[in-house]
Design brief:
Radius of gyration: 16 Å
Oligomer: single chain
Structural class: mainly alpha
Distance between the termini: 48 Å
Strand content: under 5%
Order of helices and strands: HHHH
Number of domains: 1
Largest sheet: none
Helix content: 55-70%
Length: 93
C-alpha cells in the first residue's frame, strides 16, 4: 500500500499540469523587521533573498519527491532556522 501511495503522491505535479489543476504553492515569511533597507547593504539584502530562495527550494524538493505539505513547510522553516541571515526562530525581541 505504501508504494502505491508514494507513487500516487509523486505524480501530483504531473497530474496538476495535465489536468490544469493548481500546482502546489509554498509560501514562507522572511520575518518582520529583521532587516531594514536603510540599515543594510545591498550585499546583505541579496544574501537574505538567496537564503529565502534556498528555503523555498528545500521545501519544494520535499513536495516534488511526493512528501506531504507539512513536511515541506517544516523543511523550509528548519532551513531558515539554521541560517543566521534569516534569524528565524529567534522569537520576538
Amino acid at each position: 500500500m505504501d508504494a502505491h501511495k508514494n507513487h500516487k503522491k509523486s505524480n501530483v505535479f504531473k497530474y496538476a499540469k495535465q489536468h490544469t489543476l493548481p500546482r502546489p504553492v509554498l509560501v514562507i515569511h522572511g520575518g518582520a523587521g529583521a532587516m531594514s533597507k536603510s540599515g543594510s547593504t545591498e550585499e546583505q539584502r541579496e544574501r537574505y533573498r538567496r537564503a529565502l530562495r534556498e528555503a523555498l527550494r528545500v521545501g519544494y524538493s520535499v513536495l516534488r519527491a511526493g512528501g506531504e505539505a507539512i513536511d515541506a513547510a517544516t523543511a523550509a522553516v528548519t532551513f531558515m532556522e539554521g541560517m543566521f541571515t534569516t534569524a528565524a526562530a529567534t522569537g520576538a525581541h
